[in-house]
Design a protein that fits this description.
The protein is an alpha+beta fold and 369 residues long. It contains eleven helices and 13 strands. Strands 1, 2, 3, 4, 5, 6, 7, 8, 9, 10, 11, 12 and 13 form a 13-stranded mixed beta sheet that branches. The longest helix is centred in the middle third of the chain and has 19 residues. It is globular, with a radius of gyration of 21 Å. The protein starts with a strand and ends in a 32-residue tail after the last helix.
Amino acid sequence: MECQLLEPTDPRWERVLARAPHEFYQTPGYTWLEARRIGGVPAAVWAAENEQEWLLPLVLRPVPPLPGVAEQVASWRDAVSPYGYPHPVTTASGVEAEAFLDRALGQVRECLRCERILTVFVRCSPLQSLAAAYGRYGRVVEHGPCYWLDLTESAEALQSQLRSRYRSYLNALKREGVTAGFVPFREGLDVFLGLYYRTMDRVGAARWYYFERGYFEELGALLGENLRLCVVTLEEQVLAAGLFADSNGVVQYLLSGVDERLGQPHATKLMMTFVRDWAKEAGHRVLHLGGGVGGADDALSQFKRGFTRHSSLFQTWRLVVDEELYAACVRAWEAHSGSTADPLDGFFPAYRLPVSQADSDSAVASASV
């Protein structure tokens, strides 16, 4: 079996994607974008045996030089998947898939050790299942539910899944003349950013969620017509705006903002149903709404639940490549912070939790970014 790290320009990366179901999250371009955003190096770990292939996009960063282990980790990196749901991609299927994955993941671990990559943290897609092999070569952690709409169902079935009071809110909005529709991305970007940043301020979002304007511009250039900006308006006043991306039959709800000063708190609900109807008409299979913040079953998660009867658990996969060195890093972090590090199903890798957040309740269940 072959196994190695690939650069984004390596043709094998695109070759795997051409042969296997995937979304934009797994593309070299998106991995490049995420690497620039978080300050890392884009790569994919790839394994192949005969006609079966496996690939996982990653962003590589130096392991933090904690006091006591700085020399030990000087040449080591750790890896995180790009933001979103970049599920591992494989061409293997059928009865041989599990055996191939078991062999492939064993080789992947050895390859990563040779490349001096200490840990791997992967955000997996709730729309796909993880084979049992991932649990044998790491830790699979279940988080809160993510919600999605099956667009192959009839329009009547989709509408019937709306929470009853949502239907009342939508009828009231339409009577008032509120409408939803797509606008050209570049023309609507300033309005979207104003609403998005205002919403992040209002909910007290972590700074990590304040994506810079340049990030959105690059995302627009990368996805082109597959990135759509939906706005909800009343007499030319924008009440809410949201970004949606489609690839290979799946529409992903990315980010949105609403102007709470205008007294229309339900404008986002109209946006969701508009995109639902458009996506079905366009022939897409799934509209994925996602879940709560950090995978939690919170108020945001419950808002999304009001649109559909379908849900799946969000999972993350954590792999410790060198357990002895990882334990040393965790001990160094504990000595430096004066706190007890999280277990593998908590913040991961534990040594990346900022010391200033070590005692914060909000950080306990967080995962590495």
